[in-house]
Specification:
By secondary structure, the chain is mostly helical. It has a single domain, classed as Orthogonal Bundle (Ammonium transporter fold), CATH 1.10.3430. Helix content is 71%, strand content 1%. The protein contains 15 helices and 2 strands. A two-stranded antiparallel ribbon has the order 1-2. α2 packs antiparallel against α3.
């Protein structure tokens, strides 16, 4: 009898054996292709800060401050990493409220070898997001370069990422109120660039101008380093934008394509505008335009097509050029390396135009059901204004408190001597 039952059921058993691997695969959401791409993207975005941004900034400051700027960027990378695993990841991406996460994932609680975030390990997702938390405060360095105490910089960055970056990140990407409202920010136009640009502007105003600015010439120490750093930023930005899809798919491919288009358009626009205005194109203008294009396409990269990217690149190249050359001189603030002029203004331009070029009729991914272009642009403005107001007020409070407690600036004599020797007893250039 048992033999008969076995023979009768054997076709069914064979069928079950054949489909069981498929069933197991369907239950396992890990995708090795997505994971490999996100591991690569994480390395690319980290590469943007060290060495990319470090070299970009180091070449633009005077020789006596080149090492100090690289020191600041490198140290910020280390500091953010430690704070991220202690509590920042939890504040940014745990459930919490509409405004801030809770501490349920503090000390990376629950993030193990087998825990997933979509189709990738949560450890990879967390480290990818960490690289954004690293580069955002590092961008601010460009606004107050050559005059802030190293100790004050450390305190400011630690407090700022805790009470400004983490909440704004949660608002947009962590399930907070801006994301729920439908504000579009694919890779950080609001979270990273407007945030950093506004904080940089506030820091530049609170701290005041460098000694001798703008009467004394403050020539870059090494524009070759700046161009090398800009090239590294350009390459690393593919991980920044295409990686924000969190998958190796068509959206990531288009995000990479539009990033290239906008960057090239921004670089050429700035170069030609400067050429027309001053009679000669400059290397610094070319790379500044490239970064402006990179910044502006960041919030739009997962939503727009190549023609939208071209328009965004041209708009950002021209808009950021006007901001740096005209607006800064008109108002007289000393944004040393144009953190606000490029990242703040570029982020605002990109955030607004995301709401325009997402429209399917303009080659974009398409607006949400029932949402008009005007309504989407209105939502983008809400995200921009909310970030500017919150970041501006809180950054100002942090800076004023630190100034009263420990002081923000080095002395006039120390500034004259240069931060490399005064703060670190070393030199970037031994000549």
């Amino acid at each position: 009898m048992s033999n008969f039952l076995f023979k009768a059921c054997s076709p069914i058993l064979l069928l079950l054996a054949a489909i069981m691997p498929g069933i197991a695969g369907a239950q396992d959401a890990l995708d090795s292709g997505d994971t490999a791409w996100m591991l690569t993207s994480t390395a690319l975005v980290l590469f943007m800060t060290i060495p990319g941004l470090s070299l970009f900034y180091a070449g633009m400051v005077r020789a006596k401050n080149a090492l100090s700027v690289m020191m600041q960027c490198f140290t910020i990378c280390c500091l953010m990493t430690v704070l991220w695993v202690l509590y920042l990841y939890s504040l940014a991406f745990s459930d919490g409220s509409a405004f801030i996460g809770d501490l349920s994932m503090a000390f990376m609680s629950g993030v193990g070898v087998d825990s997933l975030s979509g189709t990738i390990p949560e450890s990879v997702f967390s480290m990818f997001q960490l690289t954004f938390a690293i580069i955002t405060p590092a961008l601010i360095v460009g606004a107050f370069a050559e005059r802030m105490k190293f100790s004050a910089m450390l305190w400011f960055m630690a407090i700022w990422v805790s009470v400004v970056y983490a909440p704004v990140c949660h608002w947009v990407w962590g399930g907070g109120w801006l994301g729920e409202m439908g504000v579009l920010d694919f890779a950080g136009g609001t979270v990273v660039h407007i945030n950093a640009g506004i904080a940089g502007l506030v820091a530049a105003i609170v701290m005041g101008k460098r000694r001798g600015y703008p009467e004394s010439p403050m020539k870059p120490s090494n524009l070759v380093l700046t161009m090398v750093g800009a090239a590294m930023l350009w390459v690393g930005w593919f991980g920044f934008n295409a990686g924000s899809e969190l998958a190796a798919d068509g959206v990531a491919g288009m995000a990479m394509a539009v990033t290239q288009v906008a960057t090239a358009a921004g670089a050429l626009t700035w170069m030609f505008a400067e050429w027309k205005s001053h009679g000669k194109p400059s290397a610094l203008g070319l790379v500044s335009g490239a970064v402006a294009g990179l910044v502006a396409i960041t919030p739009a990269s997962g939503f727009v097509g190549p023609m939208g990217a071209l328009a965004i690149g041209i708009a950002s190249g021209l808009g950021c050029y006007i901001s740096v050359v005209k607006i800064k001189r008109t108002f007289g603030y000393d944004d040393s390396l144009d953190a606000f002029g490029v990242h703040g203004i570029g982020g605002i331009i990109g955030a607004v135009l995301t709401g325009v070029f997402v429209d399917a009729g303009l080659g974009g991914a398409g607006l949400a059901d029932g949402v008009t272009m005007a309504a989407q642009v209105g939502k983008q403005f809400v995200g921009i204004v909310a970030t500017i107001v919150y970041c501006g007020i809180v950054s100002f409070i942090i800076l004023k408190v630190l100034d009263n407690v420990i002081g923000l600036r080095v002395s006039e004599q120390d500034e004259q001597e240069g931060l490399d020797l005064v703060l670190h007893d070393e030199q970037g250039y031994n000549m």
